[in-house]
Amino acid sequence: MKNPIPVVIVAGYLGSGKTTLLNHLLHNSGGARIGVVVNDFGSINIDSMLVAGQVDSMVSLGNGCLCCAVDVSEMDDLFARLAHPRSEIDVIVVEASGLAEPKSLIRLVLGSANPHIAYGGLIEVVDAAEFAETRERHPEIDQHLRLADLVLVNKADRVAAEQLSATVATVRGIVEQVPVLATAEARIDPRLLFDPKTVPATGQLSLDQLLIEDHHHEPGEPRTHRHLHDDYDSVSFVTPTPLHPVRLLEFLEDLPVGVFRVKGFARFAVAGEKRKFVVHNVGRHLRIRATRWVASDLRETQLVVIGTKLDVEAIRGRLDAAVHTGTVLEQQAMLGIHRYLER
Ligand SMILES: Nc1nc2c(ncn2[C@@H]2O[C@H](COP(=O)(O)OP(=O)(O)OP(=O)(O)O)[C@@H](O)[C@H]2O)c(=O)[nH]1
């Protein structure tokens, strides 16, 4: 089966920059096809969707608040239209209306019966200039932010540098581990959210290419390297030595500060365990799928950790600690992994 299509939810108070973010993603999708679910098409840049040939992929909801107006079955209908086995859509972005309650939106996605979609994370957009005032009027914003997998402190251009860092610090204090990014016009690197189809003109590598590049390493040695970008860091970790499943879970269940996504696959040092374990983590949502190695696969672990302001050494240290060099482990070492296995 194809990898499920990630559903990314964009939420945030009125006017914070949700539509701006959506338009930015549509313009910079790197060839990825984006299906959008919005309340109102009025402000979406239809031209950019036309350019990207995505006009078929638009699904519009009626007016009103997404989370209360739509029940799970209606939402499933929308997902069914956008995501089916032959769908050419790579990512679905749901723009919540300004006052939507993010918890019910996340539930809609996690509770969906559609096997072709997967939760792709909640992005909360905050207006840097209005944040303090919005928070006073709507103290529940703290709860909303804590559900996020990525927070954008947007409209960075509208405030002085000191106010921006103070707001970012306040948001970090609220969300703790969750990555927080200051943005202008919601310009984030789309690769934080999904993988582009093509290598952009800048010659930067896609994440899949990150996984397979760098062949200059000592046989048997884990390789970790980092690619820096304005918006995000990605750390790629490759090792032919099988991992200890418990150690890997310790990493995945307690991710370092700033990590937004972890993707790739793992091989475990467990007796009789010959499968390839595909790992997908967004924010605090971990999914693992057991599959077979195909003939062209290198039988090794390849993981990419993506986020903002990552402590590369700490990540490398923790992933190194998951490499198992002792004797082969008993099957019971897999119990923790089984909790996350998709059926
Ligand atoms: N100065 C500045 N203006 C911005 C920025 N991002 C968005 N805007 C403007 O802010 C206004 C609101 O942006 P939207 O993207 O429509 O915000 P929204 O969250 O979708 O708004 P609602 O749908 O009403 O909740 C628009 O006029 C944008 O052009 C930014 O980074 N800096």
UniProtKB/TrEMBL annotation:
Known catalytic reactions: GTP + H2O = GDP + phosphate + H(+)
> What Gene Ontology terms describe what this protein does at the molecular function level?
hydrolase activity; nucleotide binding
Record Pfam families: cobW (PF02492), CobW_C (PF07683)
Q: What Gene3D superfamilies does UniProt report for this protein, alphabetically?
A: CobW-like, C-terminal domain (3.30.1220.10), P-loop containing nucleotide triphosphate hydrolases (3.40.50.300)
Renumbered to this chain, the signal peptide range is none
Can you quote a single GO CC term?
cytoplasm
What are the entry keywords? Answer: Chaperone, Hydrolase, Nucleotide-binding
Give the CobW C-terminal domain ranges: 232-323
Q: What InterPro entries does the record tag this protein with?
A: CobW-likC_sf, CobW-like_C, CobW/HypB/UreG_nucleotide-bd, P-loop_NTPase, Zinc-reg_GTPase_activator
Similarity remark: Belongs to the SIMIBI class G3E GTPase family. ZNG1 subfamily.
What is the name attached to this protein's record?
A: GTP-binding protein
Q: What is the phylogenetic placement of the source species in the record? A: Bacteria, Bacillati, Actinomycetota, Actinomycetes, Mycobacteriales
